[in-house]
Design brief:
Layout lengths: L3 E14 L14 E2 L7 E14 L2 E2 L6 E14 L2 E13 L2 H11 L3 E3 L2 E7 L3 E10 L2 E10 L3 E2 L5 H6 L3 E5 L4 E8 L4 E3 L1 E4 L5 H5 L13 E12 L3 E4 L1
Parallel strand pairs: 6-7, 6-12
Antiparallel strand pairs: 1-3, 1-16, 2-5, 3-4, 3-5, 5-6, 8-9, 9-10, 10-15, 11-14, 12-13, 13-16, 13-17, 14-16
Pfam family, one: DUF2071
InterPro entries: DUF2071
Protein name: DUF2071 domain-containing protein
Length: about 240
């Protein structure tokens, strides 16, 4: 039985190229930074985590919620296979119990903050807004898209960002948690406008304040799907 079954829906992804040196201290043991065309990426992602079931059970008042996370990309070679995964620097949710379980049992980096979202379907477009409150100020991921879905092209940047099927969490310098994420290949809505406003320093600290001066390399909206998260395993070097 899968540890968790859910849906990840309407994933607004804002992607930046950064110097890989700033991420080295976050790289879990046994993995290395995964590059696309020589570029190292971090992504800010806002989405809906819906219909959550843990070990087959629906948890009252914790089955549907927003999440915003900051992540980067790694790979691990094992028995001749390349496993491509994501590492989460920060994950924000509106439910304390979610943060407690993830931080206690998965060594993740969840924070609980006030959150809200708005989804609009217009005649020829869609609008996706995710907001979270820090120091009495609302931060916003806000994108407008075309109304109809399109494919995520093979060998594209969007494919690189979305097609990572493992999660890796640093325990210490010699141990790592690994878990597998399963989902079908996603489609996307083409983004026509990005009006996101994020106070990077107040949300992520001085270390990531520099991102306010960067232009995103891309912004897109992955439609998402049902997903599963398989139980974790510990890797020891």
């Amino acid at each position: 039985m899968s540890f968790l079954k859910a849906e990840w829906n309407n994933l607004a992804m804002i992607n930046y190229e950064v110097n890989p040196e700033i991420l080295q201290k976050y790289v879990p043991a046994g993995t290395e930074i995964d590059f696309w065309n020589g570029k190292c990426y971090v992504s800010f992602i806002g989405f809906l985590f819906e219909n959550v079931r843990v070990l087959g059970m629906k948890i009252p008042f914790h089955s549907d919620f927003e999440e915003v996370n900051l992540r980067f990309y790694v790979r691990r070679f094992e028995n001749g296979t390349c496993k491509r995964g994501a590492v989460f620097i920060s994950e924000i949710v509106p439910k304390y119990a979610i943060s407690f379980v993830a931080n206690t049992f998965y060594n993740e980096h969840y924070r609980t903050l006030p959150m809200k979202h708005t989804l609009k379907v217009n005649e020829n477009s869609r609008e996706f807004i995710y907001q979270w409150k820090v120091n009495n100020n609302w931060n916003t991921i806000q994108v407008a898209t075309q109304k109809n879905p399109i494919a995520i092209e093979p060998d594209s940047e969007a494919e690189f960002i979305t097609e990572h099927y493992f999660g890796y969490t640093k325990i210490n310098e010699n141990e790592t948690f690994e878990y597998q994420v399963t989902h079908p290949r996603w489609q996307q809505y083409e983004v026509t406008k990005n009006e996101s406003v994020i106070d990077f320093e107040s949300v992520y600290g001085k270390e990531f304040a520099f991102i306010k001066d960067l232009k995103p390399t891309s912004v897109f909206l992955a439609i998402g799907s049902k997903i599963t998260i398989e139980d974790k395993r510990k890797i020891k070097l």
